[in-house]
């Protein structure tokens, strides 16, 4: 039985508590949260023990789940790793590049498992393309959200766009060549809306737009590659694939078109999307990596690479006159 200690039981922390309770082979030992309102709610609703000492909770656990504000990630993760505990930490991995790099090195030396909470990797709409040959050469992303004061201690880049940065880095097997970016601070002191262009060494280009001051919600990614187009709607959990039909294609809608090179048959497929809980899936995958001594789906290195690109974007934005 793996013992779990949860650090941070605010809005997202309660989602984690609900899902840990549903995972076999796991027991929640207790939680740490300096906020009395959060703590009292959890004690009343879940009957869990509140620890007032961080180290005592760590000592009682095998797994530390960190869902605190980003600027607390490093100190908690560092203590846990030094104690040889496995760590699940919400994105972004850390507050600064140095902190992120230090955590990566510490994990390697401690030989423990760490997973970063890039939950969109487990979105059923994204999982629907895991068996496809994905080699995008152009990517277009829109992630829009209505304003919510929660999470505004970091920019829209580290709050929202980092989800898509991680997805893109997992799909494009090439190093970043160049980044162009601009952003505007509208409601907070950091960028609330941003547009970014990432160019990769293999020729792929990704255009990303993220906003947390939109009137409507949107989480869409479009992948364009030779002979096919893939549309992923992370919010509505829908996936669409349009491509040139192959002889072995089944369960697709197809039609013919005339092109300069002759008649082509276009196939449209809408993969069946499983009704899955992405947070539960990511926590289960973490437990599986510990029990089977396998690589975590979103490793500390993945988390670091995503935040490294995010910080490069922030540097580009800060060098422009748009951010005020």
Write the layout of secondary structure elements.
Layout lengths: L1 E6 L3 H10 L5 E7 L3 H11 L2 E2 L3 H6 L3 E4 L6 H10 L3 E5 L6 H14 L3 E4 L6 H4 L10 E7 L11 H16 L4 E9 L8 E8 L4 E7 L6 E8 L2 E6 L4 E7 L8 E7 L2 E8 L8 H15 L7 H19 L6
Parallel strand pairs: 1-2, 1-4, 2-3, 4-5, 5-6, 7-10
Antiparallel strand pairs: 7-11, 8-9, 9-10, 11-12, 12-13, 13-15, 14-15
Helix pairs in contact: 4-5, 5-9, 7-9
- Which CATH class of the largest domain? Alpha Beta
**Strand line-up of the largest beta sheet:** 8-9-10-7-11-12-13-15-14
Averaged pLDDT:
91
Reading the helices and strands in chain order gives EHEHEHEHEHEHEHEEEEEEEEHH
* Helix content estimate: 25-40%
Whole-number total of structural domains: 2
For this structure, the CATH topology of the largest domain is Dihydrodipicolinate Reductase, domain 2
Largest sheet: 9 strands, mixed
Oligomer: single chain
CATH hierarchy: architecture of the largest domain? 2-Layer Sandwich
Beta-strand residue fraction:
25-35%
Structural class assignment: alpha/beta
The dominant shape is: globular
The unreliable regions are none
- Backbone CA Rg: 21 Å
Span between N and C termini? 52 Å
